[in-house]
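Tutorial, part two.
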Amino acid sequence: MNKILTALVIVISYQVNAQGDVPINVVADGNFISRVSTPESALGSAYIPEEYSPARIINFDNKIYSARYNALNKQMEVLTDQNTTPIALDIVNNNYEIFFISLQKTYRSFTYNNEKGITKRGFLVVLSDENGVSLLKEENITYIPMTPAVSSYDKDRPAKFKREDDIYYLKLKDDSIVHISSKTKEIPESFPNYSKEISNFLKKNKVKTKNEEDIIKLANFIGTL
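Running the prediction step on this input gives:
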């Protein structure tokens, strides 16, 4: 059996949930994972990229797969020769690195605490990796249900997928992962040993957390400390 199938999933059953999604329960070689869900019709897309794109799964064979990231359900969906139905990588029991060739974009699986201190397991985009420090990005899409008209003068508002602001993290030299606040003044607090140096860097370079290039420069600077 192809080595990739030990970490991917084969569809075995279907069911429908209350929101109208069509979840697919999956299993591969006794390795159970969470379901893959195809969101109901709505404006926009739950996927990044929206269409399947050529990708390599690092440390497996050299074969190129078609993949896309479901930013709503936090699953990496893959198409294989054996099945035209998307199947998901099992990040509960495995670590992965997926490189999207045409996009020149890398996702890796991590366990980390989000900005609320909640432990999560999921895929993050690797934006930079220098001096033992990696800048990571969490991509988020939310589903907003259809809103019915409240009067005869109003119109129904269709369901839609909304791309939320990206959330950034730093994986440090000790392998800890630290959330980067969207508020510039709060960033030095996350690095108490170097708060003065980071504060000076932020001011000198007029770093804006909405500017990804600025965040990359900050990450590279922290890697030198």
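The chain has a mean pLDDT of 81. In part three we will examine how such features are distributed along the chain.
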